[in-house]
Amino acid sequence: MAEYKLHCFAQSGNAYKVALYLTTTGADWDALFVDFFKGGHRSEGFTKQNEMAEVPVLEHGAETFSQSGVILDYLTETTGQYGAKTDRDRREILRWLLWDNHKLTANLATGRFMANFLPEDKRNPDVTNFLIGRAKAACHVLENRLAKRDWIVGGTPTIADFSCIGYMYYEDEIPIDFAKFPAIQAWKGRMAELPNWAHPYDMMPGHPLS
Amino acid sequence: MAEYKLHCFAQSGNAYKVALYLTTTGADWDALFVDFFKGGHRSEGFTKQNEMAEVPVLEHGAETFSQSGVILDYLTETTGQYGAKTDRDRREILRWLLWDNHKLTANLATGRFMANFLPEDKRNPDVTNFLIGRAKAACHVLENRLAKRDWIVGGTPTIADFSCIGYMYYEDEIPIDFAKFPAIQAWKGRMAELPNWAHPYDMMPGHPLS
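Structure tokens for the assembled complex are given below, as produced in the milestone run.
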């Protein structure tokens, strides 16, 4: 049995944040499929592990963790990789993890969901446009940050990068013109050079075409 | 000059998370008004301190912090109050801080803004209803959590409570029937018994009626 078990599904960028970290660090991990589109995240078995009814959930030995930011922070301790080198960096990483959750992922992921995965008769263009507009505003903040540096915090990749990159490779499913964000595009290229990088659809189970 | 300087405005629940903490712990702090409704958070002077263009910002000596979760975590170190007693609690607090930012505050604050502060001709009921629907879903998660316990993590108040309470006292401005969330209402009552508790409109500058 693998050392780490990650409850995830292919379309979840929040799960990808952790899956990419585990893959890149060479951790021994298995993916456990959560059938989100059939409500698997709301099943009794799943919510017993995570009352927030959210993917990802990580099992490691007798411990279970939820929230990608908590899991990434935990993994920096177990693997010793991509964590903070100083107390100031630790706070700076936390700052970007929180911002990602609040402003970037909250809008990018939900906007993508509304534009792609909701049944067509339930889609509402006003809601989608609102969310995508807020996601774009967040992308501008990240673009300005990355225009001046290769990585979000410090001079090397950290879990802040793994968090903020979560939904970026699903670009074909997001109605944003990413060509207008060249620093983000360059950063995505740098992240894609990390060891064993793969697209989320090639890393986690459940993609409809697989 | 006060020891802590908090850049804030009365309508900001994110700033209130910190203002309430500073007040309750008896810290020596001054409020510096950010005129959000005139774009003060986007001014050059402000974004030089916080490229995320968000309130709150805390100044303490030569240090400047942004993101309420980072600030609260920092203050547990400087004041020794409302922090984690164990490593497990530290992660559990972080889990709820992240969830608050992603699911609770992101929807509650934005839904309230759309319903109250946006000029009437720019309001879109579909967008407001969508956000309030997601805020309600988050309130159900919190309600279930608090149905079994007095505080979000452990047996005493922590910064997880200060974070999740951020927008809860603006209830008159949020189209949610909070009577349907009795555990949340009881918890708000317990928080309101903390030393020197006050409503955000009585704690921070800029309320239109003041």
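The mean pLDDT of chain A is 96. The beta strands of chain A are 4-8, 29-33, 57-60, 63-66. Further analysis is deferred to the final report.
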